[in-house]
Automatic annotation (TrEMBL):
This is COX15/CtaA family protein. The lineage of its organism: Bacteria, Bacillati, Actinomycetota, Actinomycetes, Mycobacteriales. InterPro entries: COX15/CtaA_fam, COX15/CtaA_HemeA_synthase. Pathway: Porphyrin-containing compound metabolism. It is found in: Membrane. It comes from Gordonia alkaliphila. Keywords: Cell membrane, Disulfide bond, Heme biosynthesis, Iron, Membrane, Metal-binding, Oxidoreductase, Transmembrane, Transmembrane helix. It comes from the Bacteria. The chain crosses the membrane at residues 21-43, 79-96, 108-128, 134-155, 175-197, 230-248, 255-274, 280-302. It is a multi-pass membrane protein. The keyword Cell membrane applies.
């Protein structure tokens, strides 16, 4: 007697993946990369960046960590890469097997899957350059780029999109739609600028990842002021977009509220950590907040340019 295999159970769901199945893996992909930001921050603030002084080995030609505090922390962060690879590959397989074919989802899954091992190589370069602050910054920004792409993947594959009865459809060629798009693009660009300047501040500060690592030799006070100026610019454009979304009852107003809340909390954490001497927990929370800001800015941009959620299929 033969037994039929349901789409949900065949190959653990990969045989004929549903949109919800693909969406679940997309969410896991995004969450894993955000976790990498947190663990990477923990490596930096605990001074464990050279806990494994070589790459891809962990010192003395071995692939296992020295049984030291710093070695275990750095090696644990490296091991997270394998989890990211597994999740990225699973997401890619689900995107490739999903029907009807979604070319955008396939491209996004491929970019994220390729980005994870590339990130591991960049991480190795940071070790080989003894935590050069500019290379470390590039390592962090590459993760933020992957997070933005993974967010797009989540947005693209979200099932059962509910509509708010209070939302008013806005024609794409209207002044309001164009203004919302322009503001969303500006918010996204300033978010990138703010995060980049945050890495410059970090490169001039005390959390180098190792006590012997060099800094970027910039004035921490001036670097912090420049970063703060970008934050205020982001606050202005972010709340302008929120005001427009609320007044015009745009579909993005809920996302705009969330972004404004995260931005305010991130600003408070930034000022508190600066005035209290950069305590470890606040530095890690601030890095986590940067990842959340990029998620929020990406969602706002996608909602502005893809209001009707058209889907490229074949």
């Amino acid at each position: 007697m033969s037994t039929s295999v349901t789409p949900a159970s065949g190959w653990l769901g990969f045989r004929t993946p549903s949109l919800r199945f693909l969406y679940g893996w997309a969410v896991a992909n995004l969450a894993a990369n955000v976790l990498l930001v947190v663990t990477g921050g923990a490596v930096r603030v605990t001074g464990s960046g050279l806990g494994c002084p070589t790459w891809p080995q962990c010192g003395d030609g071995k692939y296992t960590p020295p049984m030291t505090y710093h070695g275990v922390i750095e090696f644990g962060n490296r091991m997270l890469t394998w989890l990211l690879v597994a999740i990225a590959v699973a997401t890619w397989v689900a995107a490739m097997r999903y029907r009807p074919v979604d070319h955008v989802a396939r491209r996004l899954a491929t970019l994220v899957a390729l980005g994870v091992p590339l990130q591991a190589v960049i991480g190795g370069i940071t070790v080989l350059t003894k935590l050069n602050p500019w290379v470390v910054a590039f390592h962090f920004l590459a993760t933020i780029l992957i997070i933005s792409l993974a967010t797009w993947m989540v947005y693209r594959t979200r099932p059962n999109v509910a509509t708010d009865p209070d939302e008013v459809p806005v024609p794409r060629d209207s002044v309001i739609a164009r203004l919302a798009t322009a503001l969303a693009i500006t918010v996204y660009a300033i978010t990138w600028t703010t995060i980049y300047l945050g890495t410059v501040v970090t490169g001039s500060g005390p959390h180098s990842g190792d006590e012997d690592s060099h800094r970027n030799n910039l004035d921490p006070v001036l670097a912090t002021q420049l970063h703060a100026d970008a934050v205020w610019a982001l606050l202005g454009t972010g709340f302008a977009l929120l005001l427009l979304a609320v007044i015009a009852r745009l579909a993005m107003q809920r996302s705009a509220w969330w972004f404004a809340g995260i931005l305010l909390l991130q600003g408070v954490i930034g000022y508190v950590q600066y005035s209290t001497g950069l305590p470890v927990i606040l530095v890690v929370l601030h890095m986590f907040g940067s990842a959340l800001l990029m998620i929020g800015a990406t969602v706002l941009l996608l909602q502005a340019v893809d209001a009707d959620r058209t889907r490229e299929t074949a």
